[in-house]
């Protein structure tokens, strides 16, 4: 009896895990932003996870807008 229940239960659990993992991968694919304002400094994306600081530029992030100012 237990063997019969487990023979149905294990494939169903595996199917749910496979569907859940694939949905998580395809739905929540995160792409990093090309420009990031961090502590008033503008950071620009070089590679997928590498950023560099832009010289002579300050930034602010207000109301979902990136505001850039050139330093003199």
Keywords:
72 residues; four-stranded antiparallel sheet; single chain; alpha+beta; 36% helix; rod-shaped
Strand % is 35-45%
Say how many strands there are.
4
Report the end-to-end length measured between terminal Cα atoms. 80 Å
- Percentage of residues assigned to helices: 25-40%
How is the largest sheet built, in terms of strand order? 1-2-3-4
Tell me about the largest β-sheet: 4 strands, antiparallel
Shape: rod-shaped
User: How many helix segments?
Assistant: 1
Unreliable stretches, pLDDT < 50, 5 or more residues?
Answer: none
Secondary-structure-based class equals alpha+beta
Write down the secondary-structure element order. HEEEE
Average residue pLDDT = 85
The radius of gyration over CA amounts to: 24 Å
- The domain tally reads 2
